[in-house]
Write a structure and sequence with these properties.
2 copies of one chain form a homodimer. Chain A is built from 7 helices and 3 strands, in the order H-H-E-H-H-E-E-H-H-H. Chain A is mainly alpha-helical. The first copy, chain A, has one domain: Winged helix-like DNA-binding domain superfamily/Winged helix DNA-binding domain (Arc Repressor Mutant, subunit A), CATH 1.10.10. Chain A has a 3-stranded antiparallel beta sheet. In chain A, helix 1 packs antiparallel against helix 6. Chains A and B meet through helix 1, helix 2, helix 6 and helix 7 of A and helix 1, helix 2, helix 6 and helix 7 of B. The first copy, chain A, binds a DNA duplex (30 and 30 nucleotides) through helix 1, helix 3, helix 4 and strand 3.
DNA sequence: ACCCATTGCTTGGCCAGCCAAGGTAATCTG
DNA sequence: CAGATTACCTTGGCTGGCCAAGCAATGGGT
């Protein structure tokens, strides 16, 4: 703060003086991920898998390529994650008859059964994170995060929506 | 957005309706990390290592345990990261003569030489992320993130400061 | 009809990060 | 002073996540 102490009195590293918001964002993001991980563990999920399941709950049988697109993840990441989740019985994969390259992914009953739990985790996480913030503050935070997301979207890939719903999607 | 379409028209998964801010935060965090990773790669750093280096630049020779504390990471994570960074010549490790359990860590000259580059990366990232936001919006975002960090701090570990500067720290 | 670019997915390799378990050294306690 | 506890670090094992390289199927161009 003040005084002659040259360094290391602040929580933010001095080399990051050019990006205080980025520092705060990185810290919050890690904490948030940890907090989510703790809650998800009790459901038998690892962090990141909850987003996959949400996508599957919304979309029904989907092509893996669409999951990659909508989650904004690398193809290999999705492949491996789905392999593990299939092995755990959360997910079902089968070749797409219309395109023998593609793989259709679908939540199993066991996977669907997690929905309530995940929704609870997510709500609880929201409540824990935003404690002490009124509705207007929350809306403002959401708005500002949206702006940042738009700024980073072009250079850091996309986490968009389901592009072309062929049927139930 | 409107109409009878039941699902999967929104960018946010419907199962996450209970936590819109958490969804936004998770998305922004991943984009932000990717954007940071792209920039850091050109410096020869992996994401996460820049924070380590910042700490070392600020603190000089530090105990590994203090790094663990200030970065809020797991001890094993720090051990392995430092082993790799030492092998790359960014960092120097030696046993603490005052406590033979402890390890003192210090940036090498090569490690110190990255400081300018990392500062540039961080500033550039800040600028890219916050484009379109005025000073008041930025301050507001920082404030709100601070509140969230405080909320999550107790349950998700700490990323605090250098606790007891023995000398140069 | 054929060749080639594109798309979709997989594999291998690497790093960040977590937990659990273990080993050594310092410190607290009886 | 000896034994128990605590602090510090390391190792192994697992997942998320990335990139690069590779393979198979589709589709477009000539």
């Amino acid at each position: 703060m003040s005084g002659t102490d040259p360094v290391c009195t602040e929580t933010a590293p001095s080399a990051a003086h050019g990006g205080p918001v980025s520092v705060a964002l990185a810290r919050v993001a890690r904490m948030h991920r940890i907090a989510a991980g703790r809650r998800l563990r009790e459901l038998g999920l690892y962090p990141g898998q909850e987003m996959m399941m949400m996508r599957l709950w919304d979309c029904g049988p989907v092509r893996q390529s669409e999951l990659i697109q909508s989650l904004g993840l690398d193809a290999s990441t999705v492949t491996k994650m789905l392999q593990r989740m299939e092995h755990c019985g959360l997910v079902l994969r089968r070749p797409d008859p219309a395109d023998r390259r593609a793989v259709l992914v679908e939540a199993t009953d066991e996977g669907r059964s997690l929905r309530v739990g995940v929704e609870g985790v997510w709500s609880d996480l929201e409540q824990a994170s935003l404690s002490g913030l009124g509705p207007d503050d929350r809306a403002e935070l959401e708005r500002l995060l949206g702006v940042v997301a738009d700024n980073l979207r072009e250079e850091a890939g996309e986490a968009g929506e389901c592009p072309a719903p062929p049927r139930g999607c």
